[in-house]
Amino acid sequence: MLSVERNINKRKKVLRTTKVLKEFYRPDLLEKEYAILSHCWGVEKEGEQEVLFEDMNRLLIVSDEEREEIRRRTGYKKIIDTCCIDKKSSSELSEAINSMYKWYADAALCYAYLHDTVWDSWVDRSESMTIPKWFSRGWTLQELIAPKTVHFFDQKWKWIGGKPGLAWILSKFTGIPDTVLRKGLKQVLSNVNDYAPPSVARTFSWAARRKTTREEDRAYSLLGLLQCYLRI
After folding, report:
1. Of 63, 80, 93, 206, which sits 20 to 30 A from 228 (CA to CA)?
2. C-alpha 28: how far from its chain's center?
3. How many angstroms separate the CA atoms of 53 and 58, rounded?
4. What are the average pLDDT values for consecutive 10-residue runs of the chain, which has 232 residues?
5. Positive or negative, the Cα torsion across 132, 217, 215, 72?
């Protein structure tokens, strides 16, 4: 994808048969380190437009005008799940929903993009109006807990800080114990003699104030945290 984008920017010819997206299966991912992105989906009525799987698949075969329209969208500069999951395939969608937690947990790094934040304006405050939208969304709960390493960036991709260093304020915002944020849920669950593993009710409490666009996503976004599998 990045090589395609570089060639388009340099006005070099790109073969229409070039693959923009490449498919990886979990065994492939376990053999190499990868980074993953966490973000909030754009709200169309607020002028934000995401790029979908079908948009990326036809990026090189549409007209120049259509390609530029896709590239101008606010979601284009993010390599994200909106364009990496074929939602027309029920089996692929089911696999993605059930695997999402593992994808984040297995990532070497997670970059959390806070699109409505200017640097660390929220770090030394507790008023709800200053808390980034990212902390109120359902899917980002597991994206905060699952990865070993999370780095937060503001709307201009300026680094704010990492999860361990910000654990105290993250705990204040989310209600998640800083032990879980610093050590990770996997380590907490595997060291029951050292840490008290969170109950199901406690996990539900972390998600209580979070919102999702679709009602069913409130349940789907908790599957990994509860170590459940759901056939969809």
Report:
1. 80
2. 20
3. 9
4. 61 66 68 83 60 69 75 60 61 80 90 84 60 90 93 90 90 89 74 69 92 89 89 78
5. positive
- The residue type at 59: L
Distance of CA 182 to the CA centre of its chain: 19
Place of tokens 């996990």: 203
CA–CA gap between residue 28 and residue 48 (Å, rounded): 33
pLDDT at 10: 64
For residues 168, 174, 180, 182, the Cα torsion angle rounded to the nearest 10 degrees is -30
- Return the bridge partners of 152, or none: 112, 161
The model's pTM is: 0.73
CB 200 within 8 A of CB 226: yes
- Determine contact, residues 87/103, Cβ cutoff 8 Å: no
